[in-house]
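Cross-posted from the bioinformatics board.
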Amino acid sequence: MSEQKTLIITGSNAGIGYTTALQAAKKGQRVIMACRNQSKADAARQTIVDAVPGADVLVRILDLSSFDSIRQFAASIEQEFDHIDALINNAGMMPSTLEHTTEGFEMQFGVNYLGHFLLTHLLIPVLSRSPDARIVHLSSLGHLWGNINEKNFRDRSPYLMGVTAYGQSKLANVLFSQELAQRLPANIVSNAVHPGFVDSDFFRNIPKAIYFFWRRVLVSPETSANFTLEMALAENWKDRSGEFVSAQGPLPKSPRLRNARLSQTLYEKSCQLTGATPLTKPALQAQVG
Ligand SMILES: NC(=O)c1ccc[n+]([C@@H]2O[C@H](COP(=O)([O-])OP(=O)(O)OC[C@H]3O[C@@H](n4cnc5c(N)ncnc54)[C@H](OP(=O)(O)O)[C@@H]3O)[C@@H](O)[C@H]2O)c1
């Protein structure tokens, strides 16, 4: 077997993240399940260990709706592990009514995007110590109807069942991945993926009548999980960075993804909002050095 890698998967007690953790355990990788609910995460871990005896799977608590929790998680990882080989920013949600994170951000912008933004920055040192580190961002086809509007970072009215807020958060995921790809050291790559439409708890808030029909087009999480894992582990993804791909199904892309000014402005603003230290683009580093 090739050398064991250490992966962090956010939101891995359910859905695509859980299946990604399970498949990674089957491949003999060490998985850190970064989840907000201890008992749900312990139960999910136990299911993996039952299915894969000897699986190297750990649970660590991470609530992406709280900067304190994110900082505590990152500090514990830094203390416990020499290096991390892959960070899979998978956790996501789409509440149907307006909710807020601890710091007062609209919940989807805060959890799906900003929490992962801060987490990623705090983990760069431990990722840097891997010779071949990967960051994978779970975005969505839903980025298509997203727009980045600072006025909506904390509030949004009307909330429209969370659909437009979801679009903003998923567009932000891809813009972040692209911007990061330009700023990371050469041994870390960053890519985004649309996992396809997968039958998971994700659609728990949509009206039952709609879900009845919608469910017919949904597929099981295995294909998405395997694809994500390939991006995180396979040799052919080692030198690819800044890409946005689909695990299954077509992926029309928003023209906003070609707006370099938008991704840079969002990046700089997100650093201000989270207190993350900005990564400098190598071209600028060379000028400064
Ligand atoms: N399913 C699809 O068709 C689809 C399509 C496109 C993109 N995606 C994306 O794929 C990713 C995974 O979705 P999924 O379908 O697997 O959803 P899911 O089954 O609802 O799982 C989401 C996971 O995120 C976790 N999570 C939610 N809020 C969190 C927080 N504040 N801190 C930490 N973890 C949190 C959940 O934990 P709890 O169990 O504690 O709530 C759960 O483990 C998401 O980013 C989603 O946007 C999904």
